[in-house]
């Protein structure tokens, strides 16, 4: 049986145990093409682990992962990324001792094939500068282009990470708590950005900020203790008593974060 | 059956017994190393020296009357040693932790390894000065002389005692760590020190006691080993490399693994002595390599947790000290006048080691990989170049190429095996793999054992220039050095170099951008090995000899020391570091055995006070001055 074409990412019975501890159990997820799909749930529910499994950073204990109907279970992380599934990390992931422009350029360099040319001068990368500036401009980082990434404030680092991810023009974006640690202005800016880039892309995001989830996500899956608790649109989810109990009622902290 | 193979049963049983005893010693030692590594994240290279302290402790107690004649002290025997020495060695360990180890907990793992390498050199060097390298005898205690006849063989009582005691110690330690509250606390303390502190546990003291305990185990092993082996200053040096391999085999984070792997490897070694004696010195390292291929996490290791790479690069982009073109010109100009200022052969030595360090810097400074076996590439190329020139009669340029090709091949294989693991494990693995080459060179006929390949002809370069003329030789070396220096600097600044830097800074992120990071590291490692080979080949031609010293792990340590003193990940650091270390070695040569002590002290001082190296510190200072000036102008 092949997956219905509109499911870009599909997991079947996805499970992962860490030395006997079952972090993710039998998760069936179906992310449809060109939608924003949110994965929510209390801390420790297994959301990041699901991301790690889909992106090849962890190997599942059992279950399968399909990308456009093709089995990608067990592919290493870099191969998954090259197929067009690119993730961000819960803790901002940048290259701290490279400049802001170099951070984005590293992503742009990958499809060019220049990355292996250890005998070429770095000027071979100059043609990428224009695209670098475009991407930096989109996230409002152009004025900082020559600064070391380590020196940026936290919110700006997340913006840089986002620009780097976008540089690969991925078909599927997996965002792990993109709003965590951001101030109000940054939240609005990133949310707007996500909405803009969502055109023609599929996005799966983990997010605790439910206002953002309500605003962006068409479909929501709730994870609790490694299992899918509920799935549906925001209205259905927010009125589901099991969800309210497990998540929304249970941890106000998370909702506020 | 056995007699069909031409092997007598007593020989087999005898070697099995020796293998079991060695294995139990390995187990006790690996246990200490694994505890210190698992809980403190320190690769305790000084463990071998601490084992030696235990053996000397026992010997000293027995010889008190002759060592301190005026004091009327009694001679204290084995049982006294067993009671007194391990706590004493543990106390020395506690002091070591207090004074040195504690300062590097929060630093990159590399520093802990360097620090303990330095301490080992100092301790072993001092004992060598005091007692000379020749071993001392230590008698078997009277109560345990004689043996029992088990029918198939005669078993000395002392060995039976060692087996029983060592097993008891291993089991008790395993139990204490894995099954008691104290052990649970310890493990929690290393995973989350703040939390444990909040429960009112004194974490620094806990870490100190843990280190002392591991060291005490080494001391105890030393006492138990004293009646079996010769007691000598360097008795721990060969064992520590084996122990590192055993820890890798046992598996990360596994106390049980360390014990089981120790015993298994001892027995394997014993069996190899029976069936294929020539291979017995390498069998453990080969076993490690095979296990890495088929089970990268080790026999009993848990899931491979990926450590961050080692990011020690100190360069400041845009610093005048990082300007390749400028410095290429300056080095060429300086190099051209150098042989008229100092003895050309000495200048060539500096250049050879500068190239070696530059090659090493590529993998350590820019690749973030703590390689600790570059002697294998340096030495393998030296031998092949020497052989090609002396036996095959190749001209020097081709001999050099042959050496470099050999280094590239060995580097690709070792790199492929080692990049499966990171951080300290990477260091232990490269060290152990390099040891295979070392032992091979001791035994292979074409390498001439202890003598090495001597009287290597320098020959005529391209059939034209006679390199027996020291100046001609010098300028050839200078040309090769400058070419390689320029090439290595280019690699770092290439599109590939950018990715390598990204991998070093944040490997997971690089993977998520679609880069197969292991392959990038492997290329860096292989390139580094190749140029280390060029350096080794040059050295063989210049000094007309390839010897075991080229393959010895001290040569690997030299590469590290030079890079560190000069400045890790800087353009000029390795060159400056090589000049300093080679000069230091020459200046200290007059002090004989003190060289090792001083070099060890240099390691320690560097880790404690000069972590950025000479060039790194200078670049910092220049950058700060620039900052200040700019701010001054604005006001
Ligand atoms: N590498 C790992 N080893 C052991 N346990 C892990 C590992 N990664 C996650 N876990 C455990 O799995 C559970 C789910 O974690 P995670 O996926 O990070 O949750 P979430 O992202 O939903 O907060 C947690 O209990 C966590 O401790
Ligand atoms: Mg998470």
List the helices and strands and how they pair.
The complex is a heterodimer of chains A (257) and B (635).
Chain A lengths: L6 E12 L2 E12 L3 E5 L6 H8 L7 E6 L2 E2 L5 H7 L1 E3 L12 H10 L19 H10 L15 H14 L4 E5 L7 H14 L4 E5 L3 H7 L2 E6 L2 E6 L1 H5 L2 H8 L3 H5 L1
Helix pairs in contact in A: 3-4, 3-5, 4-5
Chain B lengths: L8 H32 L6 H16 L1 H4 L10 H22 L9 H23 L15 E3 L4 E3 H23 L1 H11 L1 H6 L4 H23 L9 H16 L4 H21 L7 H12 L29 H18 L2 H23 L8 H16 L5 H23 L4 H21 L16 E2 L3 E2 L3 H24 L1 H11 L1 H6 L4 H27 L4 H4 L1 H14 L6 H16 L5 H16 L3 H22 L1
Antiparallel strand pairs in B: 1-2, 3-4
Helix pairs in contact in B: 1-6, 1-9, 1-10, 1-11, 2-4, 2-5, 2-9, 2-10, 4-9, 5-25, 6-7, 10-11, 10-12, 10-17, 12-17, 13-18, 14-18, 14-21, 14-23, 14-24, 15-16, 15-17, 15-21, 16-17, 16-21, 18-19, 18-21, 19-21, 23-24, 23-26, 24-25
The complex binds adenosine-5'-diphosphate and magnesium ion.
Report on this structure.
The complex is a heterodimer of chains A (257) and B (635). Chain A contains 10 helices and 10 strands. Chain A is of the alpha/beta class and 257 residues long. Chain A has 2 domains: 1-91 and 170-257, Rossmann fold; 94-167, no CATH class. In chain A, the strands form 2 sheets. Chain A has a 6-stranded mixed β-sheet with strand order 6-7-8-3-9-10, with helices on both faces. In chain A, strands 2-1-4-5 form a 4-stranded antiparallel β-sheet, with helices on one face. In chain A, strand 4 (62-67) and strand 5 (70-71) form a beta hairpin. In chain A, helix 3 crosses helix 4, helix 3 runs parallel beside helix 5 and helix 4 (129-138) packs across helix 5. Chain A is globular and about 55 Å long. Chain A starts with 6 loop residues before the first strand and ends with a helix. Chain B is mainly alpha-helical and 635 residues long. Chain B folds into 2 domains: 9-294, Orthogonal Bundle (ABC transporter involved in vitamin B12 uptake, BtuC), CATH 1.10.3470; 349-623, Orthogonal Bundle (ABC transporter involved in vitamin B12 uptake, BtuC), CATH 1.10.3470. Helix content of chain B is 71%, strand content 2%. In chain B, the strands form 2 sheets. A two-stranded antiparallel sheet of chain B has the order 1-2. In chain B, a hairpin with a 3-residue loop joins strand 3 and strand 4. In chain B, helix 14 crosses helix 24 (573-588) and helix 23 crosses helix 24. Chain B is globular and about 75 Å long. In chain B, 55% of the residues are buried. The model of chain B has no long low-confidence stretch (mean pLDDT 87). Chains A and B meet through helix 2 and helix 3 of A and helix 18, helix 19, helix 20 and helix 21 of B. The complex binds adenosine-5'-diphosphate (ADP) and magnesium ion. Adenosine-5'-diphosphate binds next to helix 1 of chain A.
